[in-house]
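REVIEWER CHECKLIST
Item 1: Sequence provided? yes
Item 2: Single chain? yes
Item 3: Sequence as submitted:
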Amino acid sequence: MKNDQQISRRSLLGMAAAGLVTITAMDTAEAQVSRRRVRPVQSPLHFNNAAFYRKDGQFDEEKAKNAIVTLCQFYGYPMFSDFKKRLWISDYGLGHFTEVGLACVGIVNKLDGEFSFMMQDLFLLPNQMLPEHWHEKPSDTKSHGAQKDEGWFIRWGRSYVIGEGTPDLPPEVIVPKSHGEVTVNHCTVADAGVYVPLAKRGTRHWQFAGKEGVILTEVANYHDNPSVRHTNKTANDHFLKGI
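Item 4: Structure as written out by the authors:
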């Protein structure tokens, strides 16, 4: 067989059936996709909160970003060349990143006349809570006063998406003491492939990651940071101060 001879996939499979060639994991597109899904990081994932804080108590964003990279490796999330550089990450000033925090990568946040759209990927570590918050009507005129309307598509892992409705938190969802009181307790348990919309514009909502963390995509209209409000006062002040 000449090296420069092109063989179709069907022909290759036929030859394998006849015992003429041996197909390895490198030979099929299906196998290549399967390899990308392999979790190279030991399960279960576990992170020590103290490791994310320096001796002076300051949040170490670089170490926190490394933890998100580990989460992405665990699930086979396709990280791009400047992934870590583009990560926004926060412990909301609460000092308990493994309990309450968020990492995200903005993909687009566009406002064009009356039309707007936003998309970003969110990353939560195992049993980490995205703090309860809501979105007020923007005060700037360019956004036409449109409150943020959003939804979340789960890519990897599990998220407990909590918002307005009949309280029904499952027992595994425990609000950390570091966060404090929440005002909404209606839970949608969402695994990979599930989309969950916000109950209603302006309503409070939060999320809680499953035991192996979660990676999800958020879609919305234009996102305006100054219009975000958090139930926890420390988290709220920290977030608004940082924008």
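Item 5: Key structural point noted by reviewer: The chain is about 20% helix and 30% strand.
Item 6: Recommendation: ____
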